[in-house]
Amino acid sequence: MRTRLIIWVPHVLSALAVSLLLEHLGVPAALLIGPLMAGAAAGLAGARLRYPRWALSAAQAVTGVLVATSLRADTIETVQRIWPLALGLLLIVMASAIAAGVVTGRLARIEREAAIWGFLPGMASAVIAMSDDRGLDARVVAVIQMVRIVVVIFLTAGLVGVFGSQPAAGMTQTEPSGDVFLLVALVALGPVADRFLRVIPAAALLVPLTVGSVLDLSGLSIYLPQAVLVCAYLVIGANVGLGFDRAFLSDAARSLPVVLAAACALYAVGALLSLVLAIVGGVDPLTALLSTVPGSIDAIAAIAFSEGADISVVMTLQIMRLFVVILVGPVMARLAVRWVMRRTPHPPQP
């Protein structure tokens, strides 16, 4: 126990210190990027740290509660107005993700279907688990997903610096109000849902989000302190960073340049499509950007809240895309692989 504390305490303190430093310097998404950088430094230094599954589920549950307490009455009206356009753009992003996987598989000489799954947007943990169920190499999928998420976090932070933060729409209460016991129950619901409701994609996030939304809309106030959000961001960011250890770099060394280039290209597609959503759909640029870029839901939610985007619209569209990925992603991945195989010339038999 003492040995574990000696390892974990410096990691947590360093993650908090880097976060506060970046926050003081005005770096966008500092509370997410700080733990990510601290986690990566620890991983590359040889620290064998991994957050337990229940901690990740609890952090995702906090994200779900954040979204639930940020819902506004006009969100449904906004989504009803833009959903055909948004759905079309989300399908374009998904098709681009599949194309990125096909190209990466060819150039990096890795299994094409695994590469496609690596670029599928949504909830990274759900996509990795689904790929493993299909018998694909989950390590390849995990490597690509991790690189893609890091690209999304850092490029989004850079673009937020261009767009600038704005007053958050539907932000959580800053004054102590609401029921803290409801918060505790909803956060505890995350690991339970992850354990027993695995049929639901991203259950640790979506179940507390749904229950919390019902409670919030029924008039019950949920108190979500800033300190709880900071802890959740720390777990989410540091967990991604800790994955970048020496073994990861060894496994990914050959394919990393191709994966990195493809992830940046996919992000560029999402960013360009956000201009369409902003101009045609009348959505503010930051909200449009976070709605279309292919990030992991929990990371996007953290950035949306910290930088003042309309988190209720962002998460509605991100969840819409998650279910599109869950429902049609596997079929589209298989069809893409078959199409490529038919068009690939086979060497003549001796």
Explained architecture:
There is one protein chain. This protein has 350 residues and is mostly helical. It has a single domain, classed as Na+/H+ antiporter like fold (Up-down Bundle), CATH 1.20.1530. It has 15 helices and no strands. Helix 1 crosses helix 2. The longest helix is centred in the N-terminal third of the chain and has 34 residues. It is globular, with a radius of gyration of 20 Å. About 3% of the residues have low confidence.
What's a concise summary of this model?
This protein is mainly α and 350 residues long. The chain has one domain (2-46, 53-343): Na+/H+ antiporter like fold. Helix content is 76%, strand content 0%.
What would the keywords be for this entry?
350 residues; Na+/H+ antiporter like fold; 76% helix
Which secondary structure elements does this structure contain, and how are they paired or packed?
Blueprint: H1 2-24, H2 30-44, H3 53-69, H4 75-108, H5 112-119, H6 124-133, H7 138-163, H8 180-196, H9 203-217, H10 226-242, H11 246-252, H12 256-281, H13 285-292, H14 297-307, H15 311-343
Count the helices. How many?
15
What does the average pLDDT come to? 82
Name of the CATH class? Mainly Alpha
**Bulk shape:** globular
Helix content: over 70%
Q: Low-confidence parts, pLDDT < 50 over ≥5 residues?
A: 168-176
Q: Which value, in Å, is the CA radius of gyration?
A: 20 Å
Strand content bin: under 5%
Structural class of the helices, strands and pairings?
A: mainly alpha
**Number of DSSP E strands:** 0
- Level-2 CATH architecture: Up-down Bundle
Return the string of H and E elements.
HHHHHHHHHHHHHHH
Distance between the termini: 63 Å
CATH topology label: Na+/H+ antiporter like fold
Largest sheet: none
Number of domains: 1
